[in-house]
Write a structure and sequence with these properties.
The chain is an alpha+beta fold and about 550 residues long. It has 19 helices and 14 strands. One of its GO terms (cellular component) is nucleus.
Length: about 550
C-alpha cells in the first residue's frame, strides 16, 4: 500500500515538473517559481510528501462517502501545501456533501486562484481556460487540459453551492459560463446535462420567487443567500468549551474587579433549549437608578460619518487629535495614549491598509449591526498580531454566538473576507483564519454589540463589551446600558429595585415605538430567541410560521 501511494505521489509530482518545464518553454515570463514542485523537493521536503499523502487519504474517504474524514485530510494537506489546487477543489466537494455550500464557494474560488499561480491569466479577468501546455502524459491530455478540467470542476461545484445558497443570479451566470466553454475542453470531468438541469432549475426558482414575493425578491437573492448555521460548525468545539470551569473562574475574577454588586453565574433558558449560558446576578439588593457596573470597551468602531478616535470612539476635534505617524496611514486618535493602545492591540497589523471598500458598504447600512464588519477586521488583526485564531482571543471566547437554523449569507461576506485576508497579508494556508472562522466571528459579533446612531439616524458607533455582554435579555428588563464619554466607559443602571440573587437583564431589542409583535420577530431574527414571555407568547405561531417560511433575512 505504501509503495502504491508513493508511486502515485511521484507520478503526480512528475506531472508538476512537466507543467513547469512546459510553462518555462512557452512563456517564461509567467512562471511562478513558488508553485513549481520538483522530485528533489518531494524527497527532501516532508511537508510536500505529507500533503500528497493527505490528498490520497482524502480522495479515498471522499470516494467511500466519509466526507468528514475527507474534510479533515484535505485540511491537513492544505496546511502542508496550500499551493495544491486539487486540495482546495476536493475540499470544496467535501463541504458541499456535508451541507456547507457557503464554504464550498470560497474553496472553489481558492482552487482557481491557486491555479493562477501556475499560469498567468492577467489578460483575461473573467473565469477562463488557461493556455494549453504541450507536455502530455499517458492519458493523452496536456497538462493545460488537466488544469482546465480542474477549473471546470471548481466552477461547477461553485455553481451547485450558489444554487444551494439560493443565490440564483450568480448560479445562473456560472452555469452559463460553463456551457459556453463546452467545446474548448477535452475530457469534461462531469456530465454536462447536470449543468443544464441546474441552470433550468435556478431560472425556474428565480421566476417562482419573483411571482411569489414580488420584484424585490430578485434584489434579495442577489445580496443574500440562505444556509443552515446553528452558531458553530461540527469540528469547532469552542462553544461547548466556553462554559468550562477555567473560563468561568476567569470571568468571575474580572467581574469582581469592576463591581461588588453582581457576580457571574451559569443560567438556563427554555428559549435556548435549557442549555447553560452565562449571566449576571445581584449579590445584594440594588436600588433603582443605581450604577451596577462600568466597563471600558474591548473594541470600538465607527462608520466615519463623524471624526472619531479609532480606539475609543471619542469625537475628535480639529485642534485636538493625534494622527498615526506611519507613512501612508491617516488613522486618527484622541492622543498618543490611544494610538499606542490601538497599535499594540491591532493597528500594527492594519496600519496603512486600505479597507475603504468595506467602509463604503457599511455606510449604506440602516442598522448599527452593519458595523460588525468593521469589528471582524480588528478581530482578524488581533488574531494575527497575537498569532492565534481570532476565535481564541481571550476577551471574546466566552461569548455566545448567534444561533438560528435559518441564517442568511450576505454576499458581501465573500468579498469582505477576501479583502481582509489580502490586506492583513494572511497566508491562504493558515487555516486559523479560514472562511468558517470569519462566519463564526460574525455570529459572535451579531449577539454582543452595543451601537448608536447619529442625529441623522445613520449607524455611527458600536462597542464590544465582553462583560456587559453576559447580561441576558428580558422583554421587561431591570437594567439598561449607559455611556459616560468623559471616561470612555459604558455602564449598567438599575431601572427598578433589584433583589439579591435576581438576574440582571436588559432588552436586546429596544427600539423606539416598537410594538410587541415586531419586538418578538426581531428577537428571533437577530438573536435566535423564541421568547415565551407574556408579551411574546401571543405571537408564537407567527414565529413558527415565519421560521419555516422562505426568504428569512437577518439584519447584517
Amino acid at each position: 500500500m505504501e509503495e502504491e501511494r508513493d508511486r502515485k505521489i511521484k507520478q503526480d509530482l512528475d506531472l508538476k515538473i512537466k507543467a513547469a518545464l512546459a510553462l518555462g518553454q512557452m512563456c517564461p515570463n509567467v512562471v511562478n517559481k513558488a508553485a513549481l514542485a520538483t522530485l528533489a523537493d518531494f524527497q527532501s521536503n516532508p511537508r510536500t510528501k505529507e500533503a500528497m499523502h493527505r490528498r490520497y487519504l482524502g480522495n479515498k474517504a471522499l470516494t467511500s462517502g466519509d466526507y468528514k474524514t475527507a474534510y479533515c485530510e484535505y485540511s491537513m494537506g492544505i496546511v502542508n501545501n496550500p499551493d495544491d489546487p486539487a486540495l482546495w477543489c476536493n475540499r470544496s466537494l467535501a463541504y458541499l456533501k456535508l451541507g456547507h455550500p457557503e464554504l464550498t464557494v470560497v474553496d472553489s474560488k481558492r482552487a482557481i486562484e491557486v491555479m493562477d499561480k501556475y499560469i498567468d491569466d492577467s489578460r483575461n479577468k473573467k473565469p477562463g481556460l488557461k493556455m494549453p501546455l504541450i507536455t502530455k502524459d499517458n492519458d493523452g491530455l496536456t497538462l493545460g487540459q488537466k488544469l482546465s478540467q480542474l477549473r471546470l470542476k471548481a466552477n461547477f461545484r461553485a455553481s451547485q453551492a450558489l444554487a444551494n445558497l439560493e443565490l440564483f443570479p450568480d448560479a445562473i451566470d456560472s452555469c452559463e459560463w460553463l456551457l459556453g466553454v463546452i467545446d474548448q475542453v477535452k475530457g469534461v470531468p462531469f456530465n454536462w446535462t447536470d449543468v443544464r438541469k441546474l441552470l433550468e432549475e435556478c431560472k425556474k426558482r428565480l421566476e417562482d420567487g419573483r411571482k411569489k414575493h414580488g420584484p424585490n425578491y430578485v434584489d434579495r437573492v442577489e445580496n443574500y443567500g440562505k444556509y443552515t448555521f446553528r452558531g458553530k460548525y461540527w469540528w469547532d468545539a469552542r462553544q461547548e468549551n466556553r462554559m468550562s470551569e477555567g473560563i468561568f473562574q476567569n470571568l468571575a475574577r474580572k467581574i469582581s474587579e469592576i463591581s461588588s454588586k453582581v457576580k457571574v453565574a451559569k443560567v438556563t433558558f427554555e428559549e435556548w433549549g435549557n442549555e447553560y449560558h452565562y449571566g449576571i446576578k445581584a449579590t445584594s439588593n440594588i436600588s433603582e437608578n443605581t450604577l451596577i457596573l462600568e466597563e471600558v470597551p474591548f473594541l470600538c468602531v465607527n462608520s466615519g460619518f463623524t471624526k472619531r478616535c479609532d480606539y475609543c470612539n471619542y469625537e475628535v476635534k480639529k485642534k485636538v487629535k493625534y494622527i498615526c505617524p506611519k507613512t501612508g496611514c491617516k488613522e486618527t486618535y484622541c492622543n498618543i495614549q490611544c494610538y499606542q493602545q490601538a497599535y499594540n492591540l491591532y493597528h500594527k497589523v492594519m496600519c496603512g491598509k486600505d479597507f475603504s471598500e468595506i467602509y463604503k458598504i457599511v455606510k449604506t447600512g440602516v442598522s448599527t449591526s452593519s458595523l460588525s464588519h468593521l469589528f471582524a477586521i480588528k478581530l482578524f488583526a488581533i488574531g494575527k498580531n497575537r498569532d492565534i485564531c481570532p476565535l481564541d482571543i481571550e476577551e471574546i471566547k466566552h461569548l455566545r454566538r448567534w444561533a438560528n437554523a435559518y441564517s442568511t449569507m450576505p454576499v458581501v461576506f465573500f468579498k469582505f473576507y477576501k479583502i481582509i485576508i489580502k490586506n492583513l497579508e494572511i497566508p491562504i494556508g493558515d487555516l486559523r483564519f479560514d472562511f468558517w472562522v470569519y462566519i463564526s466571528c460574525m455570529s459572535t459579533l451579531g449577539n454582543n454589540l452595543f451601537g448608536d446612531k447619529d442625529n441623522q439616524s445613520r449607524p455611527d458607533t458600536s462597542v464590544l463589551l465582553p462583560l456587559i455582554s453576559l447580561i441576558n435579555h428580558d422583554c421587561e428588563p431591570n437594567a439598561h446600558p449607559t455611556v459616560e464619554l468623559n471616561n470612555r466607559k459604558w455602564g449598567l443602571e438599575a431601572k427598578r429595585n433589584i433583589k439579591k440573587g435576581e438576574p440582571i437583564t436588559v432588552s436586546y431589542v429596544n427600539w423606539p415605538n416598537m410594538d410587541d409583535e415586531e419586538r418578538c420577530k426581531r428577537l428571533f431574527i437577530q438573536h435566535g430567541i423564541k421568547c415565551k414571555c407574556k408579551k411574546c407568547s401571543p405571537f408564537s405561531k407567527l414565529i413558527e410560521s415565519y421560521e419555516k417560511s422562505e426568504g428569512v433575512v437577518a439584519n447584517t
